[in-house]
Amino acid sequence: MSYRKLKADYLFDGYKILPGHAVLVCGQDGTIEAITDESEAGGDLEKFSGLLSPGFINCHCHLELSHLRSRVPEKLGLVNFLLSVINLRNQSYQQKQEAIQNAENEMVRAGIVAVGDICNTDDSLIVKSAKRMAYYNFIELLGWAPEQALARFESGEKLGALFNESLHDERHLSLSPHAPYSVSDELWNLMAPHFRNRTITIHNQESAAENEFFKSGNGDLTRLYSNLKMNTSHFKTPGIVSTTYFLPKSDAASSILLVHNTYLEEADLKEALSFGKNLFFCLCPNANLYIEDRLPDIPMFLKNNGRMVLGTDSLASNHQLSILEEMKTIKKYFPMTTTAQLLLWATSNGAATLSFDNSLGDFRKGKKPGIVLTDRLRDGEITDLSTSRRIL
């Protein structure tokens, strides 16, 4: 068998940055054979300027909203953003399909090899059937009115069955709640048995309004319910933050992916970690700035050893679908975060979250994780000028 021998200024193996004399040996199809020292690699080295890493994992995306690119104004706040998406999301089937295909093309070019994708419809099925990327499909359920719980649950089950029938990948599919403020207790109870042995995801503390509603029953979320003509009388205000409220309801899941966490405070984080579940915290900084003009407290997560991953959210709330751009934003606002930490979140942590760690996320022998080159570094660190592309 003929092998390719790849050497760059830096090599990230999925966990740490290796010395510059490390050489990645792989098959012609990208299957990893070994990491060896340049002195033992022999000839025929392919040399690159920059850093080689496994392919990136986008743990949170809404591919089916790609047709909303540049249509929703920035910095509206969450409630106005949600109302805008609801009003704008109806376009022709052809427009949606073209936008979804373009969005996937964009992710492939940016070095993304797997996506945790939120699914409310079957709009993304045609693109996913080509299997150019790996997907964990989160069938998202919403239903605030208790009397609608059974109908919403059965609709989610049918959509999940359609995805499973089309993609034949039940392991990477789950029913997941949209957010604490959009799922009634009755719907939670119907969903919970289906969390077992699955990763589930939920939008978590994305706005101050969410915290206020769960603590006092007031705040801007009441305007959302009013606009949508939703009755909230069934909701008994728990007087605690939403994370503390819903985590016990998610106990059956093997892993829980909490997305955004923009208003998560240290006490909330410590209490969440105390549940002992396999928790992952997904950062989508460019979307947080787009919607709320605020970022999560990343040093707090580092201090408390939260397991971090990265996402892009949708093109309704982001200018691009690029994990590198998310890393660059974190470096800009939190320069103490190292490139090695960011790459860990973008590769092996992401693969573990989405149950792709048997094939993606690191350069262990036998895996085929994709190989990405990130160039235009400065002393091994990502800069504003850095670019990424998949080379194998």
Protein architecture, described:
It is a single chain. The mean pLDDT is 96. It contains 15 helices and 17 strands. The protein folds into two domains: 1-54 and 361-392, Roll (Urease, subunit C, domain 1); 56-360, TIM Barrel, CATH 3.20.20.140. With 392 residues, the protein is of the alpha/beta class. A five-stranded mixed β-sheet has the order 3-2-7-16-17, with no helix packed on it. It starts with a strand and ends with a strand. The longest helix has 19 residues, at 149-167.
Separate helix tally: 15
Given as residue ranges, the uncertain stretches (5+ residues, pLDDT < 50) are: none
Question: Structural class per helix/strand content?
Answer: alpha/beta
Main beta sheet: 5 strands, mixed
Shape, per Cα inertia axes: globular
- Could you say how many structural domains there are in total? 2
The amount of beta strand, in percent, is 15-25%
Helical proportion, percent range = 25-40%
Instruction: Give the CATH level 1 class of the largest domain.
Output: Alpha Beta
Instruction: Give me the count of strands.
Output: 17
Strand order of the largest sheet: 3-2-7-16-17
CATH homologous superfamily classification of the largest domain: Metal-dependent hydrolases
What is the average per-residue confidence, as pLDDT, rounded to a whole number?
96
CATH architecture of the largest domain: Alpha-Beta Barrel
Work out the radius of gyration: 21 Å
